[in-house]
Prior knowledge:
23 helices
Amino acid sequence: MNKLQLLMLLRRHVKLSEKRSIAYEQNKVAKVLVYYVGGAFVCLYLVFIAIIMALAAGGTSSFTPYELLFGLAPFFLTADFLLRFLGQQTPVQLIKPYTLLPIPKYTCVEMFVYSSVITPNNLVWTAVTVPYAIMTTLFSEGAAAALGIVTAFQLLVIVNSQWYMLARTLINSSLRWWLLPLAVYAMVFLPLYVGGFDEMFRFYSSVGHGFTFWHPLYYLGLAIVLAAFVEVNKRVQYYFTYIENAGVEDVKMKNVSELRAFDRYGEIGEYLKLETKSLMRNKNMRKSFIFATAFVILLSLVISFTDWYEGDFYAAFWVVYTYVLYGSIQLIKIMSAEGNYIDGLMIHKENIMQLLKAKYYFYSATLLLPFLLMLPTVFTGKYTLLALVSMLFFTTGPIFCLLMQMAVYNRQTVPLNTKFVSKGNVENNYFQVAAELMAMFCPVLFISLLKSLLGENAAYAVLLAVGLLFTAAHKLWIRNIYKRFMSRRYKNMESFRATR
C-alpha cells in the first residue's frame, strides 16, 4: 500500500468512524440544527460580509479590490484561528486505532496531517472570497485576477489551519504554550499599534497585488511556508503521540490536602472533595478549569478597562458570557469524566443524585469569581449591581438547569489525562453545541427583549426573580435529571465503557 492509498483509506475510516460513533444516533436532530442549519446561516452571513466589502471596494477609488481583501486578511485569519478551537480537533487525535497495526506510526501521522490540508472544512471562507471576486474583479479585470484572489486567500487559510494545528497541539501539552499565539498575533498586529489602522491596512494590502496577478515569488514563498508548517506538524504531533502512547511522563510526588472543610456536608461533601481533587490531579480537567478561569479574568479586565461593553446587545452579551463561561467549558460535559469510573458510582442508588448536587454547588460557587472581578464595572458605572446579581442567579438557575440536562445525554467518556491517543477524545456531541449556543445567546435575547419592553432596571429585576425561582427549586429539577438518568442508566453505562 502506497502513501496515497493509505491517505484515502484513512479518510474513509474517519467518515465511517463518525457514523459508527455512539453519539451518531443521538445527535441526528442536533446535527441537523447545529451543523446544517447553523452552517447555512454562517455561509449567508459570510456572503453578506462579501457583499458589504464589494460595495465598499466599488464605492471608492482609494484602494483596489485585492488591496481591501488582503488589508483585512489579518482580522479574517485571526477569526479563523479562534473559531477552529470550537470544533476542530487535531488530526493526530484519530491515531489511537492504528497504533497497534503494522503501519509505521510516523507515516500514519503524516497522512493525517496531509488530510488536514485537503479537508473541506478549509473551504468555508470561499463564501467570502468567491462572491467578492465575482462582484469586484471578474468583469473588470478578468477571470485570472478573480481566480488569483480566491486561490491566494485559500492558500492563506490552509497555512492558517496548519498554524492552528501546531498551536493547538502545543497548548494541549501545556497551557504555557498560549504565550506562542499571543506573541505571534502581537507581531501580526504590530503595525496597528505603531501607526494605527491605516498604516496596518496599507502594510498588508501591498502584499495582495502580487497574489492577484500570479507573481511566482509570492506563491513560492507561501508554498515554502506551508511546507514548513506541514513538516513541523508531522514531527511535533508524532513526538507528543509517542510520548503519551509510551507512557513517558515525569512523576512528581505531591502533598494533597484532605479537604476536611467539606466533612461537615456529609455525603455531598465527599463528592465536593471528589470534584476538587479531580480538578487538581487530572491533567485534562485541570487544564480546562485553568483555561476557563484565565479567560474569565481576562474578559473581566477587558470589560472593566475598555469600551467593548458599549451598546445594549454587547453590554448584555459580555455580562452573560462572563458568567456562562465556566458552565460552557466544564459543566456542559457533566458525567463524561465520571464515565471512567461510572460502575463504582452506581453501587449505591442515590450516589448520582448527590454527585449532581455537589457539581451544582461547586460550579455555583465558582461564579463568585466573575462576580468579584466585575465589581469594578459597578464603580465605573458600566453595569449596575442589580445587573451583576441578577445575572449571577440567572446563571445558577435557568442556565445551569439547561447545561446540567446534558447529564442525561452525555454518553462518551472524556479521558482524564491522555489527550492525543485516548479512545474517546474526539467527540461529536451536537447536543452539547446546541446547549452551549442556547446558554450564551438566549439570555442575551431575553435581556434585550425585556429592556425594550420594561426598561433596564425592570428587565434585570425580572431576570433576578426568574433566577431566584430556579435556584430555589434546584433540588426539584436536579431530581428530575437524576430520574431520567437512572431510567437510561444501562444504555449510558454501556456507552461509557465502550468509549473509555
